[in-house]
Fold:
Amino acid sequence: MKMLSVLAQLVYNNLLLFKKSLCGLTDYNAMARIIVGRVHRGDDPQHPRLQQPLELGQCVFDYRVVAF
Structure:
């Protein structure tokens, strides 16, 4: 049986919800508190880096998603 560990499953679920919210499949606005960072040399300009929100704790969904 090929199953994900509990931690890997939680990360997968967080990233899946983030992707669905970016595509407009949920009512949650994922980019409301996430800051779009500047594009560094060598980065794809259409996919800028995301910065974690400063005023939130590390257990908040927005902070965790950007960390991964």
The radius of gyration is 14 Å. The first helix runs from residue 6 to 22. The helical segments are 6-22, 61-67. Residues 6 and 52 are 24 Å apart (CA to CA).
